[in-house]
Write a structure and sequence with these properties.
By secondary structure, the chain is mostly helical. The chain has one domain. It is built from 12 helices and 4 strands, in the order αβααααααααβααβαβ. The protein has a two-stranded antiparallel sheet with strand order 1-3. The protein has a two-stranded antiparallel sheet with strand order 2-4. The model has no long low-confidence stretch (mean pLDDT 93). The structure holds zinc ion (2 copies). The site of one zinc ion has 6 residues, from α10. One zinc ion (ZN) binds next to α1 and α3. Belongs to the fatty acid desaturase type 2 family. InterPro entries: Acyl-CoA_DS, FA_desaturase_dom. This is Fatty acid desaturase.
């Protein structure tokens, strides 16, 4: 009898774990894809907040491809597009801005077009927008190829076919397909509309939440716009930036080398937090 109830308990634990697999997969894909975006594409490629050897650069290219999968972006094209965002934030030359786009879909569609123009070299950019950006042409060609994107999409579907227990779990699939643009909307739309500001910057950048549990530090967007060279996006005591913690560890392990930040006047003294 005791053996029977033990076996029943074991079966229940196993069943509950299987029920959780889809959520574990979604969370893992969310954070790993986001890490590649914020660590490699944003802080390394676009802003050069730290350097790394050629070996580690290739390593993180491959890591980004595996974790971003169907929404892989070229660090070169992303980096140039993002530098345009900082230079022209909330003006008509900004690749994405809620001030100039009617809704998040229109904004992301325009961003995609700017990204493709840069990727296909259809636009001439000043040197400051492309200087020192990483380049790995054949690898980017494969990552941006529709065959690669569709194969990743099919592999996400296959995972759900094996592990999803209920039909409604399939509703999460589109998030996997467009994970990168999904994160893009949160920062480029929401963080340019809602939240609080530590610094009076010239554009609409806000910090989304006092503790950025979902966006790995990217959510402290007002702090980042105030000083684009600062590797730690958190400024106030509660603004813990998990990606910066990882960068510090990689720096201690000599995998990356942090570049000393340039402190701006605005950065020296955050003003009192104001909500808006
Ligand atoms: Zn911004
Ligand atoms: Zn930036």
């Amino acid at each position: 009898m005791q053996q029977l109830s033990k076996n029943y308990l074991k079966l229940q634990v196993k069943k509950n774990f299987i029920g959780m697999i889809i959520f574990i997969f979604l969370a893992t894909h969310w954070y790993l894809s986001l890490f590649s975006q914020t660590f490699f594409l944003h802080r390394y490629a676009a802003h050069k907040m730290f350097t790394m050897s050629n070996f580690w650069e290739k390593y993180f290219y491959i890591f980004a491809y595996i974790t971003q999968g169907s929404s892989y972006m070229s660090p070169y094209a992303y980096g140039a597009m993002h530098r345009l965002h900082h230079a022209y934030a909330d003006t008509e030359n900004d690749p994405h801005s809620p001030a100039y786009d009617a809704n998040p879909f229109a904004m992301m569609w325009r961003s995609k077009n700017v990204y493709m123009d840069i990727y296909q070299k259809r636009v001439d950019l000043e040197d400051r927008f492309v200087k020192d950006l990483p380049k790995w042409h054949w690898f980017d060609s494969w990552g941006n190829n529709w065959i690669s994107r569709v194969l990743w999409g099919l592999s996400y579907i296959a995972f759900y076919v094996v592990f999803a227990e209920y039909w409604w779990m399939y509703l999460f699939l589109p998030i996997h397909f467009i994970m990168g643009p999904f994160h893009g909307v949160i920062i480029n739309w929401i963080a340019h509309k809602h939240g609080y500001r530590n610094f009076e910057v010239q554009d609409t950048a806000h910090n989304i939440m006092p503790l950025d549990v979902f966006m790995m530090g990217e959510g402290y967007h007002n702090n980042h716009h105030a000083n684009g060279s600062r590797a730690n996006f958190g400024v106030k005591w509660h603004e813990i930036d998990p990606t910066f913690v990882v960068i510090k560890v990689l720096n201690a392990l000599h995998i990356v080398r942090l570049v000393p930040e340039k402190v701006t006047k605005a950065q020296e003294k955050p003003k009192e937090t104001v909500a808006s």
